[in-house]
Design a protein that fits this description.
By secondary structure, the protein is an alpha+beta fold. The protein has two domains: 202 residues, Murine Class I Major Histocompatibility Complex, H2-DB, Chain A, domain 1, CATH 3.30.500; 96 residues, Immunoglobulin-like, CATH 2.60.40. The chain is built from six helices and 17 strands. It has an eight-stranded antiparallel sheet with strand order 4-3-2-1-5-6-7-8, covered by helices on one side. Strands 9, 10, 13, 14 and 15 form a five-stranded antiparallel sheet that branches. β9 and β10 form a beta hairpin. It is elongated, with a radius of gyration of 35 Å. The protein starts with a helix and ends with a helix.
Length: 354
């Protein structure tokens, strides 16, 4: 079976489609991923889709019926002239015809049962220090199949099967293609990434403030989980930490932070959970640091309702006691004053009678 050797040809074409700017001033790493999904129902029926992503931003996709590129961001199409897009689309159509033929030929030769899915992912990451890293992976039916070691241009099987060894041998013997991959990954990806970052600068450099909330849940009477939910922020990099009595809680078994997940509006979200003992007497707060905040931090304290309630009751009782004491003192003084007036009046009457 020979899908891997053709898989990266599509990806190389998609590089020209989706990696059309400078990155000398980058403040964080950016990764472009090119994805191909081919579902082979039988020897005559196959559906193929392609997708290009910059981080989680969808740049473009491949219409599985017309083989035309659908631009998902308005700043991708202007990166290349219209004539270049037409040439690229024609090249993709030719590639897919050969890809489908070769995969089916390999499947018959190696007795691969239908239906099955071939998936390919390739791309590159560039870093603020101007270094880069490229990658290519092939999957078969959702399982890792092959990966490319770009440093020495060798394919490494992800599973020890007859099929993976066969595909590895085919790719290793295809030296012209390996050389093409090296040029594309080591040069073209980075060069085209510059143009892509330039055209998408407004979107990529935008800053969205994080919104954070803290709440608690009780999975058991002996455990309290404090949850800090942070959402709506961009760019992706963020720091979330818990503070106990003003001191940062180090990572450990009591802390658990989720992966950073994308929102539908091209922002991100995550959750951080801290396990504490109920009524442990400490104060807790969630601290958020993000580029959009500059040198400031978000500090969201956890309000323990029981402590607030108890404090409120104590304050109320103290107020009642204070009012009662004042009333008692006032009544006592008034009574004392009345007794003195009555005594003075009585003495006056007795003096007149005498």
């Amino acid at each position: 079976m020979q899908p891997p050797r053709r898989c990266l040809l599509l990806l190389s074409l998609l590089y020209f489609v989706l990696l059309p700017g400078t990155w000398a001033d980058l403040e964080e790493a950016f990764t472009v991923r090119l994805l191909q999904f081919s579902t082979f129902q039988n020897t005559s029926s196959v559906d193929t889709e392609g997708l290009g992503l910059l981080e989680d931003i969808e740049l473009g996709s491949l219409d599985k019926h017309t083989r035309k590129i659908r631009f998902r961001q308005p700043w991708v199409r202007p990166a290349l002239p219209r004539s270049d897009w037409d040439t690229i689309e024609n090249m993709i159509k030719i590639y897919l015809q050969k890809f489908h033929h070769l995969v089916n030929e390999g499947a018959v030769q190696k007795d691969v049962p239908y239906p099955f899915v071939a998936q390919c992912m390739a791309g590159c990451t560039i870093y603020p220090n101007k270094t880069s890293q490229t990658f290519a992976h092939v999957a078969y039916n959702g399982q890792d199949f092959l990966s490319l070691c770009v440093d020495n241009a060798t394919w490494l099987p992800s599973q020890d099967t007859d099929l993976s060894r066969y595909a590895q041998a085919v790719l290793q013997n295809y030296t012209a293609f390996t050389e093409l991959v090296e040029v594309l990954f080591n040069d073209t990806c980075i060069d085209d990434m510059e143009r892509l970052l330039l055209y998408g600068k407004t979107v990529l450099e935008r800053k969205k403030l994080p919104v954070a909330t803290v709440f608690a849940c009780t999975p058991s009477p002996a455990q309290l989980l404090l949850v800090c939910r942070v959402t709506g922020f961009y760019p992706r990099s963020i720091s979330v930490a818990w503070l106990r009595d003003g001191q940062e809680v180090p990572p450990g078994p009591d802390t658990n932070t989720s992966a950073i997940l994308p929102n539908a509006d091209l922002t991100y979200q995550l959750r951080s959970v801290l396990a504490v003992a109920p009524h442990d007497g400490h104060s807790y707060a969630c601290r958020v640091r993000h580029r959009s905040l500059g040198t400031r931090s978000l500090l969201i304290p956890w309000g323990n309702s029981e402590v607030v309630l108890i404090a409120g009751l104590v304050a109320g009782l103290l107020a009642v006691v204070a009012v009662a004491a004042v009333m008692v003192l006032w009544l006592w003084r008034r009574r004392k004053h009345r007794q003195m007036e009555e005594s003075t009046s009585r003495n006056s009457i007795l003096s007149k009678e005498a």
